[in-house]
Amino acid sequence: MNTKNFLLFLFLPLGSTWAGENHLPTFELQDYIVQSSPLMLEVSDSTQSLTVLENNALEDLKSDTIAQTLVNQPGISQTYYGPNANRSIIRGLDGFRVSILENGLNSFDLSSSSADHAVSIDTLLIDRLEILRGSSALLFGCNAIGGVINIFDKSIPNPTQKDSLQNAFRARLSSVNEGIHRGGIVFKEYGDFIFQINGSALSTEDYSTPHFEVHEEDEDEEAGAGAGAHEEAPVFADHVENSHSEIESFGFGFSYAHANGFVGMSYTDYDSTYGVPNHESSVVSIDRKK
């Protein structure tokens, strides 16, 4: 009797051990991260700090000024001192904080320091626009904390891109100011040399508007204190005075291809006269040779 109890005492712990073991397989699940964008874009596209406009996308947006061409791009607005003197604002920053480059070089105008000075670049023959935002813009100068607008044309022909060097003639009309913008560029190849010549002209009248009343008595009150009050017949206007413009641009350039690459030079003469709408009817003239 004692022997049976002793053997039972030995096998009871062993049976409980067998019953406690579980040989079912164990699975380790990996983490799954779900990402989405309300714009239906790839992550690399929605976080991109570089915007490139070229070909038909650029042609559809072109206007008389660079600022008007880019005004509908995300994060970009414009200053507005009439239809001629305006400049892009990127993420709320403008002036010296936004650099405007022409083929990678400074445009060398006074638009960043003087509000009524236009950007002296003709938009008609532009082939490519690059907009840089964020820290990448600082590569072009420590002042460009707002961004960089880099404008490319074919003033110096690139021999490695001969397929894109095609003669072009363009024209654009606008009804609001009876504007006409026309121009062209011609290329010619002689051996290792490629030459180009280009020209354009823009002519606009004052902006047409719905009829509105001009309150000249307000100007009289500001001009002379103590002047007697008087009533005059209301004056109606149907256009914005001093919003006209006349712009002419002419240039030429060439490039020479050799075994190690190519060299080239170009010359541009940009002459513009435009108005800034105000009470004094001032006119701004710009003559830039580059």
Keywords:
single chain; Ferric Hydroxamate Uptake Protein, Chain A, domain 1; mainly beta; 290 residues; 5-stranded mixed beta sheet
Architecture overview:
The chain contains five helices and 15 strands. It has 290 residues and is mostly beta strands. It has a single domain, classed as Ferric Hydroxamate Uptake Protein, Chain A, domain 1, CATH 2.170.130. Strands 8-9-10-13-14-15 form a six-stranded antiparallel sheet, with no helix packed on it. A five-stranded mixed sheet has the order 1-6-7-4-5. The mean pLDDT is 80.
Q: What would you report as the Rg, rounded to the nearest angstrom?
A: 34 Å
CATH class category? Mainly Beta
Structural class: mainly beta
Whole-Å distance between the termini? Answer: 118 Å
The order of strands across the largest sheet is 8-9-10-13-14-15
Q: Which CATH architecture?
A: Beta Complex
Helix amount, in percent?
Answer: 10-25%
Biggest beta-sheet profile: 6 strands, antiparallel
Shape annotation: globular
**Average pLDDT reading:** 80
Spell out the helices and strands N to C.
HHEHHEEEEEEEEEEHEEEE
Domain unit count: 1
Q: How many helical stretches?
A: 5
Query: Would you count the extended β strands for me?
Result: 15
Strand content: 35-45%
Fourth CATH level, the homologous superfamily:
TonB-dependent receptor, plug domain
Could you tell me the CATH topology label: Ferric Hydroxamate Uptake Protein, Chain A, domain 1
* Low-pLDDT regions: none
